[in-house]
Amino acid sequence: LNVNNPHFLIMQGRITKVLNMNPMEILSMIEEAAGTRMFETKKQAALKTMERKQAKNDEIDRVLSEEITPTLEKLRLEKGNYLTYTANSTKIERCERFVTAYKYKEAVDSLEAEDSELKSMNDEIDAQLKETKELTEFIQSKEEQMEELRKKKGGEMTRAYNTAKKSEESLSKDLVKLTTIWKNKEESMNN
Q1: Residue 30 has pLDDT above 80, yes or no
Q2: pTM score, two decimals?
């Protein structure tokens, strides 16, 4: 049977063959005669191609879900961690700069305070040295005055001392005389 012929005919003697066909074979022959058989084969080929493509698509989905998606999630997580790390590093660096600036400012303030304190101490030392010098000069002048007074009084005191000493000696002699006289009189009264 040549179904590709546009004038499809069933030849004489073959009709019994057609009549003895089961329903599926008859359907097949009618489909061939109508030209739908060719489309059916193309449909089957397309379905097989679709099945192969679907299998490839399923394999790609499997690879995506089992290998690429976890790797992608891991990379996203690492990216998030990296961004967090860089943000924290930037914050730490900024804070370190603030701390350094604060320490510098504190050191400058401390230095200025110590400079002013040193200046006031130096002024106080200068004042103390000046006062010490004045007091030393005052003491020296007083000592000179005392020396002059000693010299002046020394002459008067020496004369007064010598006079008092002479008086004491004469009184002492008189006392010894009187004591001796008294003892003698007492002895004479007791005897």
Answers
A1: no
A2: 0.39
